[in-house]
Amino acid sequence: MSAALQMSAFGLALLSTLFLLLATCTDCWMVNADDSLEISHKCRGLWRECVTNIQDGVRTCDQYDSILADHPVKIVVTRTLLIAADLLAGLALATLLLGLDCIKFLKEEPRVKMKMCYGAGIILGIGSILGLVGSIWYAVDVYVERAMLVSRNIFLGVHYDFGWSCWLGMAGSMGCFVTSILLTCCLYTSADPSSRWQPQSLPQPRSRTATSKMYAMDSCV
């Protein structure tokens, strides 16, 4: 049961990490709302903005300025949180891989391997929170921006909606969070009791034998 749970957690962690990496690298966090009058498909990402002509399929992209340049807050915050989530997920994935029972690394130390799985779960939990905050921050900012334009009757020619990159970021973050629960809670309940961490009990003082007690009484007399 423990080995099957480990493999399931590793598969989910791998898939979630790939989702986070794709969300960070792709450029469709914002997409123009579907409109029959539109002849082009516009996408905005964390690193560039792309326009695809619907008729001939030609795609052109404009790279954003340098990372050190001034950018909107949502782009800066989402970049930072997603990159941090990617790094933590990658570290947790490597730690979890070494902690699997089917890997010969530290095969004779089951408690150490179990601690590595727990540590990977904690790291994935932190990464999932960062990824969720970054993705939701971006989505909320897009919604608020669109709501403000609608409330003021301002039409800029195109309205943006959440793109598939934003959904990928949320899905990858949720996958990391579920994996964290599997590794920190479910794995402990299904693990072999001998491999669990148990606090070492302090040695109890030895009781006096009958001979020592008699010797103590004779010395008192």
Secondary structure layout plus pairing:
Elements lengths: L1 H24 L4 E3 L7 E5 L3 E6 L5 E5 L9 H27 L10 H42 L8 E3 L1 H27 L19 H11 L1
Antiparallel strand pairs: 1-2, 1-5, 2-3, 3-4
Helix pairs in contact: 1-2, 1-4, 2-3, 3-4
Folded structure, characterized:
Helix content is 59%, strand content 10%. With 221 residues, it is of the alpha+beta class. Strands 4-3-2-1-5 form a five-stranded antiparallel beta sheet. The protein is elongated, with a radius of gyration of 28 Å. Mean pLDDT is 76; it is low at 195-202, 205-211 and 213-221.
Looking at this protein, list some descriptive labels.
5 helices, elongated, single chain, five-stranded antiparallel beta sheet, alpha+beta, 221 residues, 59% helix, disordered C terminus
Structural class: alpha+beta
Low-confidence stretches: 195-202, 205-211, 213-221
Lateral arrangement of strands in the main beta sheet:
4-3-2-1-5
Q: Note the total helix count.
A: 5
Alpha-carbon distance between the two ends = 65 Å
Helix and strand element order = HEEEEHHEHH
Our Rg estimate from Cα atoms comes to 28 Å
Number of strands: 5
Percent strand equals: 5-15%
Profile the largest sheet.
5 strands, antiparallel
Mean pLDDT: 76
Shape label: elongated
Provide a brief overview of the structure.
With 221 residues, the protein is α+β, with helices and mostly antiparallel strands. Helix content is 59%, strand content 10%.
